[in-house]
Design brief:
- The protein is α+β, with helices and mostly antiparallel strands.
- 28% of the residues lie in helices and 24% in strands.
- The protein folds into 2 domains: 162 residues, no CATH class; 97 residues, no CATH class.
- The strands form 3 sheets. It has an 8-stranded mixed β-sheet with strand order 3-2-6-7-8-9-1-10. It has a 4-stranded antiparallel β-sheet with strand order 5-4-12-11, with no helix packed on it. Strands 13-14 form a two-stranded antiparallel sheet.
- The two termini are 39 Å apart.
- The model has no long low-confidence stretch (mean pLDDT 92).
- The protein binds iron/sulfur cluster (SF4) (2 copies).
């Protein structure tokens, strides 16, 4: 992390906005129909400064459906677009960390998704620090989040303190000639906590998971909303004659029954209990074993958006404290 920080009077926010627009179109939190969404804005007045967006921003690196290649007759055309540069403004620390987690999977691992890198390189991530949790579902302070951003804004009354987290961010801020200052702020304290101590021990304790199994509709909402759920399917589409078509990557969900169905009708996680547990253990344990950190950032979206409000954090806490 770069320790440098600068002071921007709020009345001069427009100068930062113009500098951000020089990078690319600005996407920021905007409240519409009761929901906070990340949308393209032209004017800083459109920004909603409180709350966390209902959807995560993963679609900006991993669209719902992405063509890999098209074919017509003998001719094949690989995806080779140049995505337009975008500034994602107002991301909370949970979502900034989600980008870092997704990078581990798709930038540093093989096989690499060809489009991910291009989309990612064309993003500037600008954080907005949480002084308090955004609602009762947040539990980010249990997840050891790090300072991962290009720039991050801290609200200091009449001013913003802006920290630089990358050379990309530094280049933008240089345009503003701001006064340097020292300022450190701890992460907001959440009432909701997740106790992951010795979580492995509770894998077999089905009592913890039974409520999840009972209430889960296998709807996949949790995975769609989660900033680090990146399960996908590959689908081929063609005309009836098979003379032209395309291959696409599209979002899928490990909560769907058919996700692990393979030929010969072998079903690796045909039971809802197994699917429910798998998602949680992938987030908290399997990923950690491979990459040394949790895959969950404590954004709370999977609980906030679950139609039956399954609170898996409470289920785990209860299970771990019962022992
Ligand atoms: S959102 Fe809730 S009900 Fe739907 S699959 Fe996830 S846990 Fe199950
Ligand atoms: S598992 Fe839930 S709380 Fe964790 S990052 Fe995904 S949506 Fe957020």
């Amino acid at each position: 992390m770069h320790k440098k920080g600068f002071c921007l009077p709020k009345k001069e926010f427009g100068t930062l906005f113009t500098a951000l627009q020089s990078f690319g179109e600005v996407i920021a939190p905007v409240k519409k129909d009761k929901f906070l969404r990340m949308e393209k804005i032209e004017n800083p007045k459109e920004i909603t400064w409180e709350g966390i967006s209902w959807f995560s921003s993963k679609k900006y690196v991993f669209p719902e459906k992405q063509t890999l290649f098209k074919f017509k007759g003998e001719k094949t055309e690989k995806w080779n677009e140049n995505p337009s540069p975008k500034v994602l403004f107002g991301l909370r620390l949970c979502d900034l960390n989600a980008f870092a987690i997704n990078d581990k999977l798709f930038l540093n691992q093989k096989p690499k998704l060809p489009f991910y890198k291009k989309f990612r390189e064309n993003l500037l991530l600008v954080g907005l620090w949480c002084d308090t949790p955004q609602d009762e579902y947040c539990f980010c302070d249990s997840m050891k989040l790090q300072h991962k951003y290009d720039l991050c804004l801290f609200d200091r009354g009449d001013n913003f303190h802006i920290k630089i987290g990358s050379p990309k961010g530094e280049k933008i801020l240089k345009k503003l000639k701001l006064k340097a200052e020292d300022y450190e702020k701890e992460l907001a304290k959440c009432e909701k906590k997740l106790n992951t101590t010795d979580i492995k021990k509770y894998f077999e304790n089905n009592e913890i998971w039974k409520k999840g199994e009972k209430d889960c509709l296998s709807c996949g909402t949790c995975t769609i909303l989660c900033p680090t759920c990146l399960c996908f399917d590959i689908e081929d589409e063609s005309n009836l004659k098979g003379t032209c078509g395309k291959r696409c990557v599209q979002w899928d969900s490990c909560m769907y029954k058919d996700f692990t169905l393979v030929s010969g009708k072998h079903h690796f996680r045909g039971e809802r209990l197994d699917r429910f547990k798998h998602r949680i253990f992938h987030k908290l344990d399997y990923f950690k074993e491979q990459f040394g950190e949790s895959m969950c950032t404590g954004c709370g979206r999977c609980i906030r958006g679950c139609p039956t409000k399954i609170d898996w954090v409470s289920l785990i806490n209860k299970g771990t404290s019962d022992k």
